Amino acid sequence: MPGLPGRYHATCNAQHPRWTDRPVVNFFFLPASVDLDECISRLYKKELLAESVIEAICAKTKELLMRESNVVHVRAPITVVGDIHGQFFDLIEIFKIGGFCPDTNYLFLGDYVDRGMFSVETISLLVCLKLRYPNRVHLIRGNHESRGVTQSYGFYTECSRKYGNANVWHYFTDMFDFLTLSVVINDQIFCVHGGLSPSIHSIDQIKIIDRFREIPHEGPMADLVWSDPDPERDEFSLSPRGAGYTFGAQVVKKFLAVNNMNHILRAHQLCQEGYQVLYDDRLSTVWSAPNYCYRCGNMASVLEVSDTGERFFNVFAAAPENDQHKDLQPGGDKQADSGALPDYFL
Amino acid sequence: MRPPAPPEPDVAQATKLHTQGSFTITSRKLPISKAGPISAMESRLHIPIPEMIFGDNLVSVVHRPSGWSVSFSAEPALDLVNKTGENMLQVAHAKDWTSSRENSSAVGIREVVRPFDWTYSTSYRGTEVRGRDGKGLEASGKQIPLELLKRRDPILFFDEVMLYESELDDNGISLVSVKLRVMEQRMLLLCRQFMRVDGVLVRVRDTRVYVDFVKDEVIREYTAKEDKFDNVKKNLMMTGLGPDAVTVAMRDSNQIANLLPVVEHQLESIDLVA
């Protein structure tokens, strides 16, 4: 494990060399009534877990995540997944294409919730998989894993609707504060939700961020989950919105050189082809929500990193099960659903 | 290794045509644009393109005898977005953000690249092509006959087509979409921009095109409405909605549009009888 341990914790492997794929209940004492394998098989069928079960699982997940560094080191082979945004059927499609846990190692780059119709089922399943296979499933925080954003973009409303109150939203969003910020694969590939920050030159500077909090509006933690590449620029630029950065080719080159790595892998931006490769193959965007918001018609992909570090985009389209739920699309800003029924608008 | 390319969209298959009286109405719906067409559009327009850009989508209304038409597509709508950065709105937390940056290592970065109206607000009213006789829409006092449109005449052709949408990096939403319904004697088209910057401002800009197939007459009405975010929220609360319902309503232009004060209104019409 290179670098210094984080402020509150060391990396999990260093502290717990004996962690394997055994169920975490052996270590964390989930209530006896909670059987993780049963939870997972129910969630694969898109059944909701009881509120008390979510509470226990989120509490245990916090304990587990607390031990992770802000920069988690993993080994390939691993399959990297971009934004999912509550598109549960497409998440299942990813497992069908890329292999189920624990046969395939997974790194998820964040944005599990909001916008899609099944954020609760999606995050419930991912959290259970993380607890069950802590060294084979890795979850990074995206800008949507936040109290503020989920109140405006659907997760809060979905929790309240499906459980009759906002408790489950509180359990999940409290747990989000513990998600790690970045992962490094084979000491070569730096993985993050959004991108780079002008305050971060070396990954050691990520390790000292106090991440156990709501995502702030500014600073390195915000930049990691928010920033975007701008292929037409060399350096950092300010967004015209008045908050946030874009980063250019030289920034990427310098960061990789300083940290002795060869690639940056991030999500956060929709692309029609499901992925985008920039800066002379130094940076990739992976997008894993096909037909985003059930109306963009875009492809999606997962990025498979082989044990030797080769990268392959596995491209896929929306799962057929989505069609059955088209008519249930909530109104709100999703007004131009392709299955729109005639109405007497004025 | 190259991944499989996504299937080419079939333009002909994605296009629907409907003929009513002397008019031909077309709608075309395709997936969001690919990286290549997006960067081509970006170099034509000189602004960053919104992340959901339906560059191939189209709605058009053509009067066959005269050749007059009005059509709606994303690129001309985006071309009307302010590209100078004048009167730019800022997100609700921009002030905090700027002041806290003063003390950080990022303080050297001052340049805002390509300033433009990042809310993608547009005054787009459709792209008009004058008839062979040179006639076009002109300012007029003719109103769209709402009473006739409230009748439940059978809808012969209906569609809803997205032009573009941006989530404004989760600071709100800006979207432009077109709806149309064709009945036997008349049709209504509504091109609506809905723009909300959380904590700051809400805008609804509607262009309605009304076609009378009996009189071969077209009326175009443009209505721009806007209000401060907090006012809209307050007004929604006054209608008796609870906090959760207000949150949902703030995302729904249909629930908000009637609460916003009108800031601009324009009526035009054209008589296409030969």
Automatic annotation (TrEMBL), chain A:
Coiled coil: none annotated. One of its GO terms (cellular component) is mitochondrial outer membrane. The keyword GTP-binding does not apply. Keywords: Hydrolase, Manganese, Metal-binding, Protein phosphatase. Residues 323-346 are annotated as: Disordered. Belongs to the PPP phosphatase family. It comes from Coniochaeta ligniaria NRRL 30616. Its EC number is 3.1.3.16. Pfam families: Metallophos. Transmembrane segments: none annotated. One of its GO terms (biological process) is glycogen metabolic process. Gene3D superfamilies: 3.60.21.10. InterPro entries: Calcineurin-like_PHP, Metallo-depent_PP-like, PPA2-like, Ser/Thr-sp_prot-phosphatase. Its cofactor is Mn(2+). GO terms for molecular function: metal ion binding; protein serine/threonine phosphatase activity. The keyword Lyase does not apply. This is Serine/threonine-protein phosphatase. It catalyses: O-phospho-L-seryl-[protein] + H2O = L-seryl-[protein] + phosphate; O-phospho-L-threonyl-[protein] + H2O = L-threonyl-[protein] + phosphate. Residues 140-145 form the Serine/threonine specific protein phosphatases domain.
UniProtKB/TrEMBL annotation, chain B:
It comes from Coniochaeta ligniaria NRRL 30616. The lineage of its organism: Eukaryota, Fungi, Dikarya, Ascomycota, Pezizomycotina. GO terms for biological process: TOR signaling. This is TIP41-domain-containing protein. Belongs to the TIP41 family. GO terms for cellular component: cytosol. It comes from the Eukaryota. Pfam families: TIP41.
